[in-house]
Structures are given as C-alpha cells and as structure tokens.
Design the sequence.
C-alpha cells in the first residue's frame, strides 16, 4: 500500500503536459456550434462522436461499435458500445444521440448545414438503448462521412442546465461529453487547459498525455521565446519557415511534415474582366512559378486538380502538372479577347499574411512581364468575407485555402463549385456551371464508390479545362514537436489530427 | 455645493456623450465590412442558415429599430450575446475587462512614476547630460512601436534572461480564482495570497513595460517643456531667495504649476491605452478586453463591439472628468478666476 | 568703527542678449552696517533691483554675468562662496522683499503653505526644532505683524484672492519669518495705503532698533526715505552718484541729479498741479 | 459739468470663498459695499483707501472683468456692454502680470492700435511716439517684459493704455514703481492729455501727495464703502471722516511745512492707532458726546 | 532719463532667428529633417536598387543580412531594404506632414475656442471631442476603409480625423489655465478681437507643449500608417512605407533583425530630427531663453 501511495505521488508529479500554441482563439466548445478549425481542436478532445476518422480518411468506430447502411442508402443504423460512458460516469445511450441531433437541428448552426435537406427533426430515432436509426430524406452518399462531425452530448447533464436556451449558455463554458479529456480552465482569447479523464471508456495507450495547454498567440516571437524557455511542446501548423528553422536549431524539436487534404488555390473570378476569359486564366496558370511557391515560400505538395491527392481513390491522376512557362503564357494570352493591350488585374489576398504577400508579389512580377498591370489588394479577413458575397466586388485573383470539413470529395466540390454554394469566400470563382452542378449532384446520390470515383474524375477534368483556379499546392503541415511527443498523423478532416488520445510521450 | 452641482452637470453631460458615442459607434460598426452571420457560421453554412441567424439577431430590421433594441437592452444592463464567443457580452466583458484594466493601470503607474521625474530632471539640468539622456530616451521610447517593444522584450525574456514569464496573467500551475474585482493584484492582496501576487506582478512586468514606453516618453517630454516654461517665473526665484531647497523647489514649486499638460496627456493616454493595448495583449496572450475587442471588430460581432466600446467609453469619460477636476485642484486659478461671463 | 555687515565693492554686472553685451552696473560701492537703516534711491532702470539680486545671488547666469567686485557679508565674499554655503544664508541670515508682489507668489499654493515651507527649511538650517503647529502659529503671528486684519483667512487664501497690497505684505511677512540679520526690501510700500505703509515702516524701524536688523530699502518715495532711513545712497545709470546721511542729503543735496529728484516730489500741500500748463516746471 | 461719463449705483461685490473638504463651507468677503459715484466728462476722480478695501475690484467691475453682485454701472448714461466693447481703458496695478511674456513691447502696444485699424507702418511710428511719451528709448520696442525693470514695465502699460483715446481711463496705481522724476513727467503727460482730449480719469493711488496734485475730486474708500468724498482741496484740507484723517496724517512728507499741514491724530494708549481703533474711538466719542 | 543702453536693437523676428540659430539641437534637428526630405526627393538617384520599389522579387536573395551589396540587408522577397527605406521616406514624410498640417491647427483652434469661451461653446466642442476620442481608432479606421478606396490620401484623412482630438484636449486644458491670467484680461479690456486674444495672446503661451506633442506625433503617425495599410487602407504593396516595413519585418525577429530594425532606425532618426527641431522651436518661443 505504501508503494502504491508512492507510485501515485510519483505519477502525479511526473505528469506529461503538452503545451501547444494556436493562432486563433477558441470560439466555442458547444458541439452544436463548433465550426472552425480551432473549435474542433478542443471539441475533438472533449467529446466523442459515433465515428471518427483515421489518417487515411477511413471511418473508424468510436462511440458506435458497428453500423449498417441500407441498400437504398436512405437508412443508417448505429450500435453503441456497451461500455461507453460520459465523463460523469453515466452510460451513453441512443436517447443521447437523438437528443444531440435534435438539439443540433433546433439551433441550426455549426455542423447542422451538413444535414440540410438530408436530416431533420424526427429523422433520428432510438430503436433501443444501444441502437440509433437515421432516416435520410434523400439519398446522400457522403452521409457517413459527416457523422464524425457531430459530437454526442449527455442529455441528462444538458437538460439539467437547460436554462431556456437549450443549454447554450451552460455548454458555452461547460462540457457534457464522453471525450478523453475534460476542461480545466479557459481564459477566452488567451489559454485553454484540458486534463485527461482517467476513466475514459476507451482507455489510453502508453505514455498518455495528462494535460494539454493551448496558448493563443499568432506571434512568431512569442512562439520562439516559449520554445526557448522550455515551455512549449508543440507549435501550431501555421508558423513561419523561420520559426520552424529556429526551433529545429534548438535541438529539442523535430519538424514533423505531413501532406494534408487542404488545397491552396488562386481563385480566379470567372465573371469579371479579365479573368472571365479562359485564355487569361490559363495564361495566369502558366505564369505561376510553382516551384518557388512550393519550395521557398510555402512548403507544399503538388496539386494538379481541385482535389488533393489525399483522396487517392477519387483523384484524377491523368491530369499533368502545369509547367511554369512565361512564353506559353504569353501565347495563351494572345488568344484572349484582351490581347494586345495592357491588361489591368487585381490580386487579392489576406492582409498581414506574409506568404500570401510574397506569392502576390511573385505573381505581380511574373504577370507584369507578360503584359498585365497589377494592383495588389490586401484585405483583412472580414472584408474578404464581404467582398466574396458579390461578383462585382470579388477581385479577379484571390488566394484561398480550402480543406474538407468531412472526409469526402463532396466537401471539396460542393462548397467551392456548386451554384447553390456561391457567394462565400470558398467559392470566389463564381463557376455557376449547370454541367458542374449536375455532376456534383449525381455523385451525391451515387452510393457505390467506384461510380462516385468515375464522376469525380470527370468533374476534375472538366474543372481543369475551364481553369477557374490556379492549383497552387496541397498544404504540407509542419509542426515543431518535442522529440518525446509522437503520434501525430494528418487526418483529412479538420483538427481530428489533434485528438491527443492518439499521441504519446516517449521519454521517461 | 457649487462643486456638487458642477459634478452633477458634468455627469449629465457625460451621459449624453455616451449616448452620442453609442449612436456613432452603432452606425460605424455597421459600416465595417463583413457579414456577421456568415462569418459566425463559416463558408459551408447554407444561405437559409445565414438568413435564420440574421433573423434571430434582428440584423435585417431597419437600423433605427436595431438601435432601439440595443438601447432597450442597455437600459437593463444587457449588452446582448456575442457571436464570437456565443456568450453574453456582459460575461465576456466581466471576464476580460479586469485584465486590461490591470494592464492599463500598471502602464499608467509606470509612465507616471518614471515619466514625470525624468521630465523634472531634464528640465532642471536643461541642455546638460541628464537632459540629453532623458530626451534621447524619451524619443526612443516614444517612437518604438509597442508591438516591436513587446516582441523585443519577449525575445529578451525568453531567450536571454528566462526569468520573467512571457504569456498569460498567471502561471498555469498557480491555482487561483480571482475575487470579486477580477484584478489579480488587488484580490490577491485582499486575500493574503502573496504567492499569487508575486506571480501576477511578474507576469505584468513585460506587457506593462511594452505598453508604457511610449506614454512614459511623452509624459517626460511634456513635463520637461512645461517645467521649463514655469521655471522662468519670479516665484521660483523667490523660493530660491528664501532658501527653499532645490529638490523641493523642483518637485513642488515648479512641478505643480507645470502639471496641467502632463496630467491632460495622462488622462488621454489612460483611455486610449485601452484601445491600444491589443497588440501587447495579443503578443503576451493576455486575456484582456482590448484583444477581445479587436477580434470582435474583425469578426463584426456587433453586440460585442458595442459593448467593448461603451465600456471603454464610460471609462474614458470618467477619467477625463477626473482629469478636469484635478486640473482645477492643481491650479486654483482655473477654479477661482476661470468662470467669467 | 566696526566693519559693516554688508559691504559691496566695485560691483559690475552685465547682461548678454543676442550676442550684444550691455553693462548695467559699472562698479557699485555700498555699505550696510549692522543695525543700519539704509535707503537706495534712484531712477527707474538704474540698476537697483539688479544690485539686490546680485547680493542675494539670484541673477540668472546667463544672461547676467558679474564681471567684477566683491560682496562682503560678515566679511566673507559671497561671490566666491560655495553655493551650498550661500544657500544656508538665504532666508535666514539675509532675506529680501521682492518688488513685484503679483508674480513672486506661487499661484497654486496657499499663502500658509508657502510661508510654512519656507519656515520649515529655515528652521532646519538653523537647527531649530519646531512643531508644525508652532510654525503655523508663527506664520499667523508674522501676518498679523504686517497688519493683516484676518491672518488665518489670508493664510488660507491663494495669491489670486488677495489685493495688491495684501500680497505685498505677504512678501514682507515672508522675509521676516525667520528673523533675518539683513533685510533687503525692494519697494516694500508701493502698493500699500499710507496708513498701513506707516505701520509697516514703523515695524521695520522697530526691528532695526530692537532686534538689530540691518535694513537696505530700495524706494522711490523720498518721503519714506526721509522718515525712516539713516543713510541714503543715490544711484544713477549703474553707479552710486551720491551717499550721505539722510539729514545731510535732504538739507544739501550735492548732485544735480539728487536735486532734480527732490524737486519732482509732489507736495501734500498741493499747489503743483500736474500738466505743463498747470504751472509746474 | 456735462453728463457723467461714469456712474456707479449701489455697486457691491461679495466674493465667496470656499473652505474645507471639496469646498463644503463657504464664507463671504464683502469686497465692495454699496458704492455709488459719478464722474463727469474731463474730470479726474481720485480713489484712495486702505489696501484691500476694494479699489481694484471696483476697477475690475467697471472693466467688466468681475461681475458685480449688485448695483449698476452706467457709462455715458447707458448700461455697459461686454468687456472690450466698453470705451474704457485701464492701467493694471501689476504691470508685470498684465504684459504677455511672449510679446514684445511693440507687439503689446500695437494691440489697441490694431483694434482701431491702424496700419503696420503707422503703428510702428505710433509705438515710437508712445514710448517717447513715457520716457522710454525707442529700441525698447523689441524687448520682452522680462528684460524690463519694474518701472519700465509700468510705463509700457501706460503707453498701451494711451495708444487709444478712451472716454474713461482707469489708472490703478499707475506710477507706483516709477521714480519721482519719471513719475512727474508721466503725470504731466496724463494731465495734458486729459485736458487736450477731454479724457476722464478714475485714478487709484496710495500716493496721496500725488493725488492732491492730480485729482479734481477724491473719494476715500474704507472697508468697501466710500466714507468721504469731495473736491481734492476740501478733503485734503479738512477731512471729515476719522479714517480719512488717519490716512492723510500718515503720508510721509518731504518737508516740515507739509508735516504741519497734516491733521493730528489722537494717540490711543500712547501709540498711533490702527484704522479700526481710531474709527471705533471716534464713534465712541461721538456717542458719548451725544449722550452728554 | 533711463539709458541703460540697448539690450538689443534687433527686431522680434531677428531675435527669434538669433535664438534659433544659436541653438545646436535645433540646428541638428533641422539638418536631419532637411536631409530626410532631400533623400526622399532624390531617392531614385541615390538608391542602389530603385527598381526594388516596384514589382521585383528575388527569392534567391531573400533574408540576406546587411553587406556591402545590400547595406541594410534584404527582406523576405529579396529586395534591398536600404533602397526601400529611402523611398519609404516619401510616403512616410508626406503622411506625417499632411496629417499634422491638418490635425494640429484644427485641434488647436477648437481647443482654444472651447477653453477660452467656455459655456455652451466649450460644452459642445469638448463633448464632441470626447465622443471622437472614445471611438477606438481601429474601429474608425475600419469604417473609413470600408467607405473609402484605399489610397494614401484617404489614409491621411482617416488619421487626421482621429488626431485633432488630442490637440484639442491638450490646448483646451492649457487655455483654461492661461485665460485666467491678467495679461489676457488686459488684452480683453483693450478691445482686442477674439481672434487676437486666441491666437496672439493665448496661443504663444501654449506653444511649448503643443510643439513638443506635435514633434512626438510625427513618429506616431508614421507608425499608425502601418496599421492602416494592414487594414487595407493606405498605401498598397509593393510601394514601401517605413511603418509597414517595421511591422512586416517584426515577424522575422530575432533571426532577421535587420528587416525591422533598419527601417525602425530610419523612423527613429526621423523622429529624433523632428523632436530636436521641436525643442528648437520651443526654445524659439521661449523668449527668456537666449
Ligand atoms: N534679464 C535681463 N536682461 C537684460 N536686461 C535686464 C534684465 N534685467 C534687468 N535688465 C536691465 O537692467 C537695468 C537695471 O534694471 P533694474 O531692474 O535693476 O532697475 P531698477 O533700478 O530696479 O528699476 P525700477 O525702479 O524700475 O525697478 C534695466 O535697464 C533693465 O532693463
Ligand atoms: N478672486 C477673489 N476671491 C476672493 N477674494 C477676493 C478676490 N479678489 C479680491 N478679493 C478680496 O477683495 C478685497 C478687495 O480687493 P481689492 O483688490 O479690490 O483691493 P484694493 O483696494 O485694490 O487693495 P490694494 O490697494 O492693496 O490693491 C480683498 O479683501 C481681497 O482679498
Ligand atoms: Mg526694480
Ligand atoms: Mg488694488
């Protein structure tokens, strides 16, 4: 007993703490509202969903141990794990799942949009305590892929704190999930600390992470000095190359590089001059110095179509990489209706983002060589969201990142190219092409993966042909990580790679 | 009596200023680009969802109706909900204001404690080396942008010294929930938590220094100029003739009549620092209202923007009222002969 | 005869402005014996105030510059004395009444505050031990001595609240606070009504007679000189042109300049109405 | 004598002085108490009195720098306008304070000239002329106040007031800092101007010998009230109020003749009495006399 | 007759010039400012790489430390920082000069008027000032940025719209203090116009603090310009301005220190020049100084 006591005390003092910086603040931890990358980072640790996603984009069981989809793809049934329980010890039951979805539909924010026209109140039923059945209003092939985005709430805990607003106030600062971690403290805008729940139903592997501290800072110097003082364990994925270099030089860090499913585009507004002419768009693609961008400015992998190669089964490998060739660009431009004159063009990007400014300058210097007259237009993010709302205000060229919110190509195509999704920063191309819409819709109702793949490959060819974007690169994420920390693997679903149950501390 | 009526009048006017401010800012905040509902919901949200949220927030009502809602809420002390944090703006401000207040207060304290004596020293040894030193320092301090200084201090502390913490208000392993005021220094003293006090002060030093430099420089320069003007007066000479010692002459006889300009600048700074603290707060991950304000503005989180501006407006108006009264106290001539028909 | 308390020898002062030099004192000689009651008269701008400031060490250098001479106080040359030593004398051993009552009082402190501070540091230099209450009592006492009707209230006032004459009396009170040996008064009675002036002159005379104060009074009022001073120095254009006992000088002014001065004094009996056609020369 | 240039009717001024914490207690100082007087065109009215008796306050009220608590001020028979629009000028008691330290002598003197629309060239000439009038060398035009002696500042102030020809000129101790020979010249000048231009003066001074030779009529102010008024000759020859007698008796004089001309004051307790003591003494005697 | 000899026979203007030209700091300040202006005008002639101001990128030479080739090093896209600093003077100097030329007179006049007249005038002006001061600059800038197209002129307007308030407040306090003085009363009784009293009697006695504040402002304005560029208002890349260069370079601290330190030093020297000049002007107005 004495030994046990000592062991305990020893363990307590030898807690493994991971301190990570994040560049944005945590907006919310309410599963019905989480929407961005940072929100998911916290939620994926604090909550569990029915399914989750692994690094190859496969769906893997979490609260549900098994699931089945009916032949007509209109019904999905999940069976919950018998041993699954919430942080307060109560078991996870089908009614909790029903409650979670009903609440999501009522609030109609966050992941709710994934189910618009697919599920609504009453579509989710508890068959028995451990079985839930989803009835889809229309066939929706990517349905299963959207399931990990919804985290299951403890109905009893929330209704006890309902407070007239579906527990929104309460869940803004409290958690009621079955996740591996619980919230310890949260200073909005500055810091969040979560601690491991030793009773987590799935248990932990070797060298589990006991505590995770996120420090909100987008300042490179802060990150460097945190690292220098030994406080930092892991950086965000958004540091500058210099910072990675500096941290690597400290000796304590590994720089982990991973290709992701996030693509980086120059979105060309197909409805305004001069990018309304496909020859101009192709000329821009030819005048892009891919190597410099991918190797010097923003390390990244090849991107030949709108779809990153991470979607291996769906990627059209037949399309070659465009080569940087100013002569060819000039020739292409000569075919456009703007040929023979100085062509004014606006390059938009997010103000204050170093690499975007660099890319913009690089584009400017190349474009001016082939006869464009460039105006730079850096805008703060909020302004970009506004100008993206109208064709006329959307600049001709825009630098935009876009990554899948659920592990299906649909996430990439629908949001960016479908007419129904027009008017957001993700669709600054204003493609609005009936053919494209038809292909996206068709893929959505095609249950069989091979059939889907065929449609998506054709769609890629079509999109490359009309060239609404310059496909700059697929993002390579980099993290400087303490050499003792292992387990990071990129997952093609936002922030699921920061699920700290997947990490371990290998030093003693 | 007279003072009381003066005070009441000024408070009344201050309220009017706040009403004016609320109207101006209400309008301005709506000009700021961005669709709040769209930004809150993200790019994948459907148009219906955006519409629904706009409905819920009342953002598609005429602006006058929106303003009436806002004032109605304000009258009940309710600033509405923040889109960014999904919480009541009141709660957000209650959480973040003390941190900013503490920072600003520490800054003003430093600016005052260093700036004024530096100005005095420079004026007294005009054109000699202490003056040159102070002037150079003041110019350096005044034109070094606070973000630059913040980063510099942080790099210095992080790389070279490693003694002072570079982020947050308290170390993560200090277990403490702030008391009623939310001001760590004050609460920890009230509760006798000396360990917390020490930790809080150590956290405060770098951000406050980064923020204080420009103000200190300004105060030093203005104090110097004003002191030199006053030192020409006969009464300073008279004090010398009666053997009043040099330091007293300097810090009392000369400083007090010279105090109106530094006081005014200090008052202005006090308020504007709340707005300017955000860079420092961002660099030092300081959980303050300035950083919150910036985020909400960039997200066009209208309720939160209004809340932050109104709170800092109240603060500003109060500080300037106090300054105006102090000017009267510092220079009785303003009071006695100030009123004329 | 013992050496005088204050003795000025060949004092020369000049001002430099914009690179141009302007000598205003060309070698002033003047003695004030202990218990002496000396008057310095002379036309406006002749250098009286500058002489006095030189004695007190208040000339601002630059622009002023003492280019020659000695100022001996108790036989010691003030001009070569160390500043610290000199500071010890000011306000205690020697004291002065300023000419301009308005600008010589600090506008932002009450009279009481200013007087008590001066007294406190005079006490400190003299090693005198007095409580604050005692000092305030002394302040009120001196204010009463200079014929303030309500000393407490005057003490509580800011300078701006006092009339010209009251301010001048405050300045006199300031100089008398710590019972100096030498008092230099620059036109101490100009802003006072004659009754008060008479009383204050009497007070000063009494101090000379009873306490052994040495008084150097600068004035334009020859009537005042006649009724108070023992000895008169007449200054013109930066030099002393004549000096004699009061009786002698009023009986037989030697210098033309002195005679002119006396002739210009208006008479209480009237008969010399102003205006060139009014019959005056 | 023609219509009065200045008429004061029941003019009073009480200052409220605040004491204590945040000025909770107030006390009244009755600086001027029910003063009435008239000054006719071309007349010189001398106002004398104890220091602090309210002379400057009266002057300030006439100038519109201080609001009276009661009473009216009529200039040329009409109630007065704002300060600066009154046809009145004043030489302030404190020459040092009434000159702007940042303005040269010439700049200060040109102020009233500019008001009259005198051009730059003319006004330079006029400045030189005015400086000459007050016995200051021409080159003083470029000096700043701190470079002047007390008397020199006072002369600049006089020159400035003379730059225009106001209906009424208030002189608050205009020559207190001047030596007698300059004083004589300045007074001559003022008297000449008064006669030639028909100026009216309100002349405030402690120098009663000077007043005797300058004023036509004299008023004696004591504790904020006019206790005696009459022609200069009357008042000086036979002062009727106890305070006036004390005042005249205290004038320092140059000769024995003058000393003899001063009224004699009864000694109280073997001393020259203070003003209060004397006034109280006479009042007592008066009441005893009436009883007897 | 007084004849203490002339102190000086110089006119007020000659005296001012004397005081100014005998003040070493003022002369150094003037020299710095004149040099900066000259450098800005002659930038194309005196910079080694004038083309680096335009659309030039050279990623091979990025982040080069200071050397004989690049005196101040190169920035993140390989442009010569020295050349950009000198060209940056153009924008920064214009910005500072125009803003201060608009804001200081406006603020000063309003402060004078409010402080002197009191009553309703004071209430209205100062309460409007309070409202304007209470609006966070960033909110204001964002709103202006939303309405106006990005250009240097609009940036200057936006900053001026914020800046006058500071001077209004400062001058207001000073005026309240000075209007109680006797020489102001004297001028009033002399019938001097309000204009004269405000600008000739009161203003010269407030100039010390105003000049000092203004000369400090020059540096602040240049830096605020950077914040505006960040918000998309103001000057657009690749045109250089010093404030933006400092702000951008700060992201590369401490490794590539020259990228923000060099333009920072230029601002510093410029500010030093303005401040020394300001001190010189202050002494110029301080007539008892010789
Ligand atoms: N700071 C100064 N700079 C230049 N000249 C000065 C300065 N102070 C005084 N003077 C000049 O020195 C001379 C003597 O001045 P001082 O004040 O001693 O005269 P005064 O005899 O006291 O005259 P008054 O009786 O008018 O006060 C005057 O001509 C005056 O202009
Ligand atoms: N602003 C003020 N506040 C309070 N009391 C004042 C104020 N101004 C003047 N007094 C008081 O009013 C009374 C009259 O002052 P005033 O200046 O008129 O006297 P005076 O007759 O000119 O005296 P003197 O001959 O000494 O100049 C004095 O008791 C003075 O203290
Ligand atoms: Mg003198
Ligand atoms: Mg008076």
Sequence:
């Amino acid at each position: 007993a004495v030994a046990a006591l000592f062991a305990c005390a020893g363990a307590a003092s030898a807690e493994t703490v991971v301190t990570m910086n994040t560049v944005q603040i945590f907006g919310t931890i309410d599963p019905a509202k989480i929407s961005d990358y940072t929100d998911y980072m916290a939620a994926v640790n604090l909550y569990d969903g029915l399914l989750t996603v692994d690094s190859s984009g496969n769906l893997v069981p979490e609260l549900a141990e098994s699931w089945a989809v009916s032949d007509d793809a209109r019904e999905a049934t999940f069976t919950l794990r018998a041993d699954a329980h919430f942080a307060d010890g109560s078991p996870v039951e089908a009614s909790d799942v029903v409650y979670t979805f009903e609440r999501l539909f009522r609030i109609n924010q966050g992941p709710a949009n994934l189910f618009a026209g697919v599920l609504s109140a009453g579509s989710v039923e508890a068959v028995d305590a451990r079985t839930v059945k989803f009835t889809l209003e229309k066939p929706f092939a990517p349905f299963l892929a959207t399931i990990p985005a919804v985290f299951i709430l403890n109905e009893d805990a929330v209704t006890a704190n309902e407070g007239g607003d579906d527990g929104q106030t309460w869940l803004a600062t409290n958690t009621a999930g079955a996740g591996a971690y619980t919230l310890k403290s949260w200073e909005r805008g500055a810091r969040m600390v979560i601690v491991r729940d030793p009773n987590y139903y799935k248990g932990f592997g070797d060298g589990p992470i006991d505590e995770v501290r996120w420090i909100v800072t987008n300042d490179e110097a802060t990150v460097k000095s945190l690292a220098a003082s030994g406080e930092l364990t892991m950086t965000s994925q958004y540091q500058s190359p210099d910072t990675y270099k500096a941290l690597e030089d400290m000796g304590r860090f590994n720089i982990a590089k991973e290709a992701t499913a996030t693509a980086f585009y120059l979105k060309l507004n197909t409805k305004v001059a001069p990018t309304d002419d496909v020859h101009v768009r192709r000329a821009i693609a030819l005048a892009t110095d891919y190597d410099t961008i991918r190797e010097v400015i923003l390390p990244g992998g090849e991107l030949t179509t709108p779809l990153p190669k991470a979607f291996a089964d769906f990627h059209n490998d037949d399309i070659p990489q465009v080569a940087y060739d100013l002569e060819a660009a000039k020739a292409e431009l000569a075919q456009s209706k703007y040929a023979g004159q100085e062509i004014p063009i606006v390059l938009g990007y997010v103000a204050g983002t170093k690499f975007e400014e660099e890319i913009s300058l690089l584009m400017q210097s190349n474009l001016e060589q082939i006869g464009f007259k460039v105006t730079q237009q850096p805008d703060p993010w909020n302004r970009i969201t506004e100008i993206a709302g109208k064709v006329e205000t959307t600049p001709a060229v825009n630098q935009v990142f876009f990554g899948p919110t659920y592990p299906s190509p649909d996430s990439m195509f629908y949001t960016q190219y479908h007419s129904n999704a027009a008017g957001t920063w993700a669709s600054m191309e204003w493609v609005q092409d009936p053919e494209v819409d038809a292909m996206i819709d068709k893929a959505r109702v095609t249950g069989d993966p091979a059939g889907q793949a065929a449609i998506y490959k054709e769609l890629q060819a079509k999109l490359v042909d009309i060239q609404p974007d310059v496909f700059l690169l697929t993002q390579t994420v980099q993290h400087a990580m303490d050499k003792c920390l292992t387990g990071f693997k990129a997952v093609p679903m936002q922030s699921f790679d920061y699920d700290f149950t997947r990490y371990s501390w290998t030093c003693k | 009596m007279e003072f009381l009526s003066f005070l009441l009048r000024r408070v009344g006017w201050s309220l009017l200023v706040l009403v004016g401010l609320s109207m101006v800012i209400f309008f301005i905040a709506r000009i700021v680009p961005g669709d709040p509902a769209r930004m809150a919901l993200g790019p994948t949200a459907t148009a219906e969802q955006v519409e629904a949220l706009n409905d819920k927030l009342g953002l598609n009502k005429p602006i006058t109706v929106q303003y009436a809602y806002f004032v109605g809420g304000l009258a009940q002390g309710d600033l509405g909900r923040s889109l960014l944090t999904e919480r009541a703006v009141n709660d957000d401000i209650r959480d973040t204001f003390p941190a900013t207040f503490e920072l600003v207060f520490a800054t003003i304290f430093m600016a005052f404690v260093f700036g004024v004596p530096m100005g005095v020293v420079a004026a007294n040894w005009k054109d000699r080396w202490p003056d040159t030193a102070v002037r150079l320092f003041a110019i350096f301090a005044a034109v070094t942008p606070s973000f630059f200084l913040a980063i510099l201090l942080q790099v210095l502390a992080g790389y070279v010294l490693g003694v002072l913490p570079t982020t947050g208000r308290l170390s993560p392993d200090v277990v403490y929930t702030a008391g009623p005021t939310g001001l760590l220094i004050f609460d920890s003293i009230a509760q006798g938590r000396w360990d917390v006090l020490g930790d809080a002060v150590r956290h405060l030093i770098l951000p406050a220094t980064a923020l204080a430099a420009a103000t200190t420089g300004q105060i030093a320069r203005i104090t110097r100029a004003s002191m030199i003007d006053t030192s020409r007066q006969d009464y300073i000479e008279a004090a010398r003739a009666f053997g009043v010692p040099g330091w007293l002459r300097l810090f009392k006889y000369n400083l007090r009549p010279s105090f109106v300009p530094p006081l005014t600048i200090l008052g202005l700074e006090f308020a504007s620092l709340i707005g300017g603290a955000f860079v420092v707060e961002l660099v030092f991950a300081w959980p303050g209202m300035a950083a919150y304000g910036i985020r909400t503005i960039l997200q066009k989180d209208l309720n939160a923007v209004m809340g932050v501006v109104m709170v800092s407006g109240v603060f500003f108006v109060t500080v300037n009222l106090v300054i105006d009264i102090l000017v009267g106290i510092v220079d009785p001539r303003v009071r006695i002969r100030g009123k004329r028909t | 005869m013992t050496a005088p308390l204050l003795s000025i020898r060949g004092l020369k002062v000049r001002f430099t402005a914009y690179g141009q030099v302007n000598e205003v004192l060309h070698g002033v000689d003047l003695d004030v014996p202990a218990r002496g009651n000396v008057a310095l008269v002379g036309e406006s701008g002749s250098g009286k105030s500058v002489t006095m400031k030189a004695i007190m060490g208040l000339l601002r250098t630059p622009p002023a510059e003492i280019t020659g001479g000695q100022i001996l106080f108790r036989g010691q040359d003030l001009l070569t004395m160390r500043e610290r030593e000199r500071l010890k004398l000011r306000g205690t051993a020697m004291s002065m009444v300023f000419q301009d009552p308005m600008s010589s009082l600090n506008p932002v402190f009450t009279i009481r505050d200013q007087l008590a501070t001066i007294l406190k540091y005079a006490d400190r230099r003299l090693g005198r031990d007095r409580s604050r209450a005692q000092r305030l009592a002394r302040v009120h006492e001196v204010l009463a001595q200079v014929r303030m009707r309500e000393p407490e209230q005057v003490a509580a006032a800011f300078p701006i609240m006092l009339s010209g004459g009251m301010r001048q009396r405050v300045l006199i009170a300031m100089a008398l606070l710590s019972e100096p040996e030498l008092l230099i008064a620059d036109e101490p009675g100009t802003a006072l009504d004659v009754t008060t002036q008479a009383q204050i002159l009497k007070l000063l005379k009494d101090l000379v007679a009873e306490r052994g104060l040495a008084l150097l009074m600068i004035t334009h009022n020859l009537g005042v000189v006649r009724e108070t001073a023992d000895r008169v120095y007449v200054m013109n254009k930066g030099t002393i042109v004549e000096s004699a006992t009061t009786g002698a000088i009023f009986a037989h002014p030697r210098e033309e300049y002195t005679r002119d001065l006396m002739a210009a004094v208006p008479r209480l009996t009237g008969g010399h109405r102003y205006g060139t056609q009014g019959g005056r020369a | 004598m023609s219509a009065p240039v200045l008429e004061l009717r029941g003019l009073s001024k009480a200052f409220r002085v605040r004491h204590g914490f945040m000025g909770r207690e107030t006390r009244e100082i009755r600086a001027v108490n029910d003063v009435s007087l008239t000054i006719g065109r071309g007349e010189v009215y001398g106002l004398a009195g104890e220091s602090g008796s309210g002379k400057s306050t009266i002057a300030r009220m006439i100038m519109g720098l201080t609001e009276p608590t009661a009473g009216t001020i009529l200039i040329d028979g009409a109630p007065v306008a704002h300060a600066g629009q009154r046809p009145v000028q004043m030489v302030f008691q404190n020459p040092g304070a009434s000159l702007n330290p940042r303005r040269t002598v010439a700049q200060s003197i040109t102020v009233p000239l500019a008001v009259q629309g005198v051009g730059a060239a003319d006004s330079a000439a006029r400045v030189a002329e005015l400086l000459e009038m007050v016995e200051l060398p021409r080159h003083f035009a470029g000096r700043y106040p701190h470079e002047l002696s007390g008397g020199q500042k006072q002369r600049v102030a006089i020159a400035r007031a003379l730059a225009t020809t106001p209906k009424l000129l208030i002189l608050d101790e205009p020559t207190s800092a001047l030596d007698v020979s300059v004083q004589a010249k300045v007074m001559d000048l003022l008297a000449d101007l008064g006669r030639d231009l028909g100026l009216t003066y309100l002349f405030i001074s402690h120098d009663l010998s000077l007043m005797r030779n300058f004023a036509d009529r004299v008023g004696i102010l004591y504790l904020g009230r006019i206790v005696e008024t009459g022609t200069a000759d009357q008042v000086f020859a036979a002062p009727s109020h106890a305070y006036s007698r004390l005042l005249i008796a205290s004038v320092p004089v140059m000769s024995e003749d003058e000393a003899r001309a001063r009224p004699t004051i009864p000694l109280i307790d073997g001393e020259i009495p203070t003003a209060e003591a004397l006034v109280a003494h006479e009042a007592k005697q008066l009441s005893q006399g009436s009883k007897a | 007759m007084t004849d203490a000899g002339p102190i000086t026979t110089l006119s007020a203007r000659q005296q001012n010039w004397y005081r100014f030209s005998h003040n070493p700091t003022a002369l150094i300040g003037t020299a710095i400012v004149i040099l900066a202006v000259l450098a800005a005008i002659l930038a194309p002639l005196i910079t080694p790489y004038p083309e680096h101001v335009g659309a030039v990128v050279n990623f091979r030479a990025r982040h080069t430390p200071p050397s004989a080739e690049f005196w101040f090093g190169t920035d993140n896209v390989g442009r010569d920082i020295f050349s950009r600093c000198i060209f940056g003077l153009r924008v920064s100097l214009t910005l500072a000069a125009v803003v201060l030329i608009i804001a200081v007179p406006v603020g000063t006049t309003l402060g004078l008027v409010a402080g002197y007249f009191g009553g309703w005038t004071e209430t209205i002006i100062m309460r409007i000032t309070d409202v304007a001061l209470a609006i966070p600059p960033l909110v204001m800038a964002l709103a202006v940025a939303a309405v106006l197209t990005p250009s240097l002129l609009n940036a200057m307007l936006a900053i001026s719209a914020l800046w006058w308030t500071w001077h209004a407040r400062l001058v207001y306090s000073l005026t309240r203090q000075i209007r109680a003085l006797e020489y102001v009363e004297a001028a009033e009784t002399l019938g001097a116009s309000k204009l004269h009293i405000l600008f000739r009697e009161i203003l010269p006695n407030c100039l010390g603090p105003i000049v000092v504040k203004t000369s400090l402002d020059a540096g602040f304005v240049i830096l605020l310009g950077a914040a505006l560029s960040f918000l998309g208002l103001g000057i657009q890349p690749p045109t250089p301005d010093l404030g933006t260069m400092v702000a951008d370079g700060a992201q590369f601290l401490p490794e590539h220190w020259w990228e923000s330190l060099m333009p920072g030093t230029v601002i510093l020297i410029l500010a030093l020049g303005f401040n020394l000049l300001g001190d010189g002007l202050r002494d110029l107005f301080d007539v008892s100084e010789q």
User: Anything to note?
Assistant: The CA atoms of residues 115 and 143 of chain A lie 8 Å apart.
